[in-house]
Amino acid sequence: MPITNSPYTAFATLLTSNGHPVSPAELHGLLLGRSCAGAGFDADGWLADAAHLLEVDPVDNVRNALIGLQEMVKGELTGEEVTVVLLLPTDDAPLTERAIALGEWCKGFLYGFGLNSAGLSLSAEAKEVLGDLDAISQVQDALEESEDGESDYMEVMEYLRVAPMLLFSELAKPQAPAPKPSLH
């Protein structure tokens, strides 16, 4: 019996029931992309970027879920044990559904990164990672339900767990808060 109430499914239901035509994967990608470009973890900035995908202003429970998601990502990227858990359908979902979510995650990541990366100079390695994400965002139709498709999916997923770390460690150096302007 499949687990129906995964975090992904619960978040998808929350978004759909509030009229947001976006997948949790794309939102999570957006959040990681902007974080990796050095956008920081200011809730207002994240909610403003998310608003583009949400299309309508989020109600409180959606706002709270988005802020919770950001706290989780902040903990993953800045904690002792740096690890990224991708917000994707569970392994018992059909491969095509999981592959589409991977593509949406990549699109979201590239969008979030693009919104916040003006003026960043990227290493060849960072450019290659972004190129890979762009390529992955196009392949969702290429994975078929098969042993090979399953292992390709797992490989891509592993790569996507590592890629943000590389970009975050290169680009999102923690910045000291800007000094408050004096009023004299």
UniProtKB/TrEMBL annotation:
InterPro entries: YgfB-like, YgfB-like_sf. Gene3D superfamilies: YgfB uncharacterised protein family UPF0149, PF03695. It comes from the Bacteria. Pfam families: UPF0149 (PF03695). NCBIfam families: PRK02166.1. Belongs to the UPF0149 family. This is UPF0149 protein KH389_25880.
